[in-house]
Amino acid sequence: EVQLVESGGGLVQPGGSLRLSCAASGFTFWNYSMAWVRQTPGKGLEWVSGIVRGGGMSTYEDSVKGRFTISRDNAKNTLYLQMNSLKPEDTARYYCNARLTTTRGDRYNYWGQGTQVTVSS
User: Fold this and answer.
1) Which of 41, 98, 99, 104 has the highest count of CB atoms within 10 angstroms of its CB?
2) pLDDT class for 54, splitting at 50, 70, 90?
């Protein structure tokens, strides 16, 4: 059974930090590109950051560049998102996403249940 389980969310004051984790199981984690996506009631789904399967390249949405860092530990089947200098507009439910397109064109796309991040004083 494929599982992506996010953790680490919570309530934090503006300027604070959180570290999100996503524990993966049931699939070959090392072979998948991973991403963090967030959702707010007003803005819908927003891609935040992605990392290639080997971890050698990562990308970020403009509003989080310099504040968030994505990483992965393929030995532990875990994805991370270090969030610093948090702002109220970072408040959202954060989801972990795993994607793979095989050489045959088969597509795999998995989602976790999300973890809530609330930035407020």
Assistant:
1) 98
2) confident
